[in-house]
Amino acid sequence: MPQGQPLVVPADGLTTRARRNTPVLAVHTGPGKGKSTAAFGMALRAWNAGMSIAVFQFVKSAKWRVGEESAFAALGRLNTEQGVGGAVEWHKMGSGWSWSRKSGTDDDHAATAADGWAEIARRLSEQRHDFYVLDEFTYPLKWGWVDVDEVVDVLLGRPGGQHVVITGRDAPQRLLDAADLVTEMTKVRHPMDAGRKGQRGIEW
Questions:
Q1: Is the pLDDT at 1 greater than 50, yes or no?
Q2: Residues whose CB is less than 8 angstroms from the CB of residue 107 and which lie 6 or more positions away in sequence, other chains included
Q3: Nearby residues of 118 by Cβ (< 8 Å), 6 or more positions away
Q4: d(C-alpha 173, C-alpha 151), whole Å
Q5: Pfam family of this protein, just one (predicted)?
Q6: Which residues of 111-129 are buried (b: 16+ CB within 10 A; e: fewer)?
Q7: Which of 52, 64, 67, 134 has the most CB within a 10 Å radius?
């Protein structure tokens, strides 16, 4: 795609402007590092464009506060106090979704993930946000906690101009087939291969 020009212009009857503004469904998958990092980078651009951001983390522990969470909390305050950028919401499964509290045992994880997806589906139908990050959402799909076919149907049928980015390893094929943008992160080398532990500012 040299200089941002598509290799093929589809005969879909849309204007260049309409085609440019088509909402994107993106999937970041693969065994390499950087899937969530890339998604949050996209969310940062969306925030700067004034879009409202909603992040849903499906696997992270409630005690694990990633650097992006703190940064986006600050950006959300900036929006509230000064009207800069877009509104921000951040929800984490490990701490219990704000709309559905579970006891947190292993037996509750599937139901908790299903609650999270149900809330996302509701918000999509209501066009609550402009940009969604479903972080590590491929795992509940892989483990059968959330139905892949239902997810794809909801995402393909979402109204308006809502963008959705999904991260995690082993994305199911039907989701990959439905996505507009698919990136596979492939590990070539990692510091942990040499026995080095994760570092603040690099891994979190």
A1: no
A2: none
A3: none
A4: 13
A5: CobA_CobO_BtuR
A6: ebbebbbebbbebbeeeeb
A7: 134
Q: Could you tell me which CATH number the domain at 22-96+108-184 has?
A: 3.40.50.300
Task: State pLDDT tens for residues 15-35.
Answer: 777 667 789 999 999 999 999
Biggest distance spanned by C-alpha atoms of the chain: 55
Tell the residue number behind the tokens 């009207």, with chain if given.
Answer: 83
| 83's tokens | 């009207």
Mark out the alpha helices in 52-137 (DSSP H runs).
67-82, 109-126
> Bigger pLDDT: 10 or 188?
188
Distance of CA 84 to the CA centre of its chain: 22
pLDDT in tens, 27-84: 999 999 999 999 999 999 999 999 999 999 998 655 566 789 999 999 999 999 999 9
For the beta carbon of residue 174, count every other beta carbon within 10 angstroms. 14
Q: Which of 149, 120, 141, 146 is nearest to 132 (CA)?
A: 120
Whether pLDDT at 106 is above 70:
no
CA distance 99 to 172: 28
Which residue is listed with tokens 């082993």? 170
Mean pLDDT of the chain: 88
pTM assigned to the model: 0.88
The residue extents of the domains of the chain are 22-96+108-184
